[in-house]
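Bench notes, afternoon.
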Amino acid sequence: MQGRQFSNDNDIARVGRKFLDLSLPKPEWTHAAHFAVTLWLMRHRPDIDLEEKMPGLIRAFNEATGTPNTDTGGYHETITQASLGVARMVLASAPGRPLHEVLDMLLASPLGDSKWLLTYWSRERLFSVEARRGWLAPDLKPLVYDEIAST
């Protein structure tokens, strides 16, 4: 895990609110920030159906920060949906713990490395146009969140 980006829950709430209002500076949209925002939304905005709404939220954020959503960059549906499942699993495993601690747990685990997806998807499949545009099931081994939790 790299240096800690979020040392308290207020830092996470700030980045979550700035993501939603499209004012988060692009350099702050790191791998850790993706998960911080997701965990914050899951805990503090249960009114938002993330599996349905996150694609539009990320696309809007990308557009606001000058990142085009194309067949080769920007929003990626398969990565987003898989990451939502992982974040939900980690959050459920730590009820009542401060979000920055939950985030630290996630980032310290193998799931904190963005390459965790390549355990389940071949590079070719994961980075295909089809996987970017819509959910594409893994081709190397099934994505079973209960099994991931035990790693």
